[in-house]
Amino acid sequence: MIAWILLALYGLVLWAISPTARSPEGFFRARSAGGAEVGAGLLAASVLITWIFAKSITNAANLGAEFGLVGGVAYAGWYLSIPVAGLVLGGIRRDTGAESLAAFLVSRFGRAAAIAFLVAILIRLYNEVWSNTIVVGTYFGEKGSGEFYLAAVAFSAITLAYSLKGGLRSSIVTDAIQLALVTFLLALVAFVVVPRTGVRPIATAGEWTLVGGVDLLLVALLQAFSYPFHDPVLTDRAFIAPVGRVRRAFGFAGAAGGALIVLFSAIGVMAFLEGMPVADDAPRAVAAALGVGVMVAMNVVMMSSAGSTLDSTFASLGKWAAVDVPTGAGRRRGIGSAVGRVAVGRAAMVAGAALGSLPLLTGATILQATTVSGTMVIGLAPIVCLYKLGPAPPAAFHAAFWTGIAVGVALVAGVWPDALAIGGGAYADLLGANVWGLAAATVLYLGFWSWGREKRSETEPLRWVEAGR
C-alpha cells in the first residue's frame, strides 16, 4: 500500500510542477515561455539525471553483484558517451550549422541515410520505454504478476500525462526535482551499505581480468564513440543551448554520472561480498534485506530515476515524429503549422507509451537494451566522429551503418562465430563483435571516403574548364 501511495504522490507532484509548453520552441527545444534557452546548470542536471536512470542503477548493481566493483566500473564506461557526444556534436554544429543530427545526415549523406538512422533511434526509444517501466514494476510485485503489470502501466501513464503538457520543457524542469530525489540512493550507499561492508572490501572486490568483467568494460569504451548518437534523449539536448554551454554541461554530467554509477554499484557489491542471491534485481534484493525503510527509499529513487528517462523518451518520440522524420524527408520546418507539429508530437508520445509496453510480456532483460542496441549502431562511430574528414559518398554511410546492424543481428541470433570471440568471459562474444564490427565499419567508411575524394578530384578540373567557358 505504501508503494502505491508513493506512486500517486509522485504523479501529483510532477504534474503540478510540470510547465505547459505553448509553442513548438518550448515543446521541442525546451525554451521558456519568454523564449530563453536552457541554462548550463539545468542542462547539466538534466543530462545527468536522464542517464542515471532506473535501468542503469539496476544494471550497475547487478553487475556489481556478479563481478564485484569491476562490474560497476564496466557499466560506468558507457558514461564516456556523454562528453564524447558534447564534443562531437558541438563540433558538427559549429562546422556545418546543422540544427539536429538528422539534418546533418541529410546534408552529408542524403535522405536514405537519414531515414535509416531515424529507424535505428526509434528502436532505441522503443527500448527505453519498457526497460524503465519494468524496473518500477518489480517494486510492486513479482515479474508476471498482476501488480507488476498494473504498476508498470500506471507509472507509464503518469509520466505520459505530465510529458504531454510540456514536451522537452517539462522533462528538463522536472529533471531537477528528480535529481534531488536520486540523492536518497547516494545517502543509502554512503550511510547504510558502505558502513556495513567497509570501503576496502568494496574497492577490492572482483578480479580485473576479461573473465572478471573487464570484457564488458572494453565493450563500453568502444561503444562510447557510437552509442550516444542513437540516443535522442542525449543528442536532442546537444542542440538546445550554445555550443560552449553544451560542452561544459556534458563534460560535467559525464564525469559525475560515471562516478555515481560506480558508487551505486556498491549496492550490488555488498551482495557479491555476502553471497546474497539477487536474481536480476540487486537493488530490490539488497533493499529488502536492509528493512522496510530502505525499501521505501529505494522505491522513491527508482520511480524518480525511471521517470526522468521516460519523460525524456516521450519528448524525443514527439520530436522524432514531428520534426526529425520530416527533416529526414527533406522538409525543413516539420509537419504543418506550429499547432499541428505539437499535436503530431503528442500523438507519437501516446503511441510510444502504448506500444513500448508490449515487451513486458516477453521476459526481455534490461541489460539487452544497452548491449544489443549499442552493438547494432557501432557503424555510427566513423560516420559521426570522423565528420571532419569532409564529404563522403552515401555509400560510405551505408557500408558502415549496415555493417553494424549485421553484426548486431548476428549476435542476437546467436550465429556470431565463436572463433571471433575475445577472451573467455561472459561477454567474450559481445567484445569480439564490437572489436571486429567497429574495425570493419571504420575500414569500409574510410575506403568509400577515399574513393569519393578521388572521384571529386577527377571531376574538379572538368568543372573548372566548364566554368571558364
Task: List the topology elements.
Blueprint: H1 2-17, H2 24-29, H3 40-51, H4 54-67, H5 69-76, H6 81-96, H7 101-109, H8 111-137, H9 146-197, H10 199-203, H11 210-223, H12 232-235, H13 243-264, H14 266-274, H15 282-290, H16 292-328, H17 338-355, H18 368-376, H19 380-385, H20 394-413, H21 428-468
Descriptive overview:
The protein has helices at residues 2-17, 24-29, 40-51, 54-67, 69-76, 81-96, 101-109, 111-137, 146-197, 199-203, 210-223, 232-235, 243-264, 266-274, 282-290, 292-328, 338-355, 368-376, 380-385, 394-413, 428-468. It is mainly α. α4 packs parallel to α14 (266-274). The chain is globular and about 75 Å long. 55% of the residues are buried.
List the keywords.
mainly alpha; 469 residues; disordered C terminus
Biggest sheet, open or closed, and with what strands and sense? none
- Number of strand elements: 0
How do the SSEs run, as a string of H and E?
A: HHHHHHHHHHHHHHHHHHHHH
Q: Approximately how much helix is present in the residues?
A: over 70%
Number of helices: 21
List segments where confidence is low: pLDDT < 50 over at least 5 consecutive residues.
Answer: 461-469
The value of Rg in angstroms is: 22 Å
Q: Can you tell me the overall shape?
A: globular
**Distance linking N and C termini:** 84 Å
Average pLDDT, to the nearest integer? 85
Would you tell me the structural class of the helices and strands? mainly alpha
Assess the beta-strand content as a share of residues. Answer: under 5%
